[in-house]
Design a protein that fits this description.
With 274 residues, this protein is of the alpha/beta class. It has 7 helices and 13 strands.
């Protein structure tokens, strides 16, 4: 999957599909959420889809207002236009399971995935409990034991505090392919304590260009090595995304530490689940 036609800088996808924009901070990983900064910049340029989604906090940085905007019907059918099979990050500018996203809208988006089933759809959330509730209800309505294997569900895990709840919720969700995004990874997490998922994405924190890279919290590359070894032992796929703006144990040459030359050779692994 490494040679597909890229339409995004995200290492593990080649397209994004943003029917919904807007969110709200829910855990420590959200501090430097790139979508807040990108959304704020888009609004400043007059992009209607992002109007009212962010404001400027007392620290001078953008922050979500909690509002969501929903795109028109044309964008709902965007995957139909993409004839080449793609790996699509769904809602990179929001969270599909954010509480302000109505259930019927979540189901409509899942229906679109079923219709345009030559793609793979990656849905990542920090709202693991709502994901479990809605996906399991959707599967019951459709008569599915699980979602089809072209819809992959994942949860963000930045520290031990959120790990148990989110991973257990994901494990109880009717998903054929389940993954963990340990990015930004803010401390060492022992994933061997939890149910094994199919895929683990790992990365250090970065900030958007134009902001102080020191605002990104440190990332020790040895944390990634332990996850790599866990994946090898458990049979899970491992994907090293980036070392971030403030790596410990590695030297970055690019601002975000997200280029191949930034990643230590022994961690230069970008696998996908079978």
């Amino acid at each position: 999957m490494s040679n597909f036609n890229k339409k995004t800088n995200i290492s593990w996808a080649n397209r994004t599909w943003n029917v919904i924009a807007g969110c709200e901070k829910v855990s420590p990983a959200c501090k430097n959420c790139y979508a807040m900064f990108v959304g704020n910049e888009a609004e400043s340029k007059g992009v209607a889809k992002y109007k009212g989604l962010t404001t400027i906090a007392t620290n001078g940085k953008p922050i979500w207002t909690g509002k969501v905007n929903i795109a028109g019907e044309k964008l709902f059918n965007e995957p139909k236009r993409w004839k080449e099979s793609s790996i699509i990050f769904v809602n990179s500018m929001s969270d599909l399971f954010y509480e302000e996203v109505p259930k019927d809208l979540v189901f409509k988006i899942l229906d679109k995935m079923l219709s345009y089933n030559w793609h793979k759809y990656l849905v990542l959330t920090k709202r693991s409990e709502r994901m479990k509730t809605l996906v399991n209800e959707y599967c019951e309505l459709k008569g599915f034991d699980k979602l089809p294997d072209f819809i992959w569900l994942g949860v963000s895990v930045e520290n031990e505090k959120v790990a148990e709840k989110r991973i257990n919720d994901l494990n109880e969700t009717k998903s054929s392919i389940s993954f963990i995004s340990a990015e930004p990874l803010l401390e060492e997490v022992d994933f061997s304590k939890y149910p094994i998922m199919d895929w683990y994405i790992v990365g250090g924190e970065s900030v958007e260009i134009g902001y102080d890279p020191k605002d990104a919290r440190p990332f020790n590359v040895d944390w990634a090595r332990k996850i790599r070894d866990f994946c090898k032992d458990s049979g899970a796929a491992f994907h090293m995304k980036q070392i971030g703006c403030n790596p410990i144990g590695a030297i970055k040459t690019n601002f975000k530490g997200d280029k191949l030359e930034d990643i230590p050779e022994d961690l230069l692994i970008r696998e996908y689940p079978n």
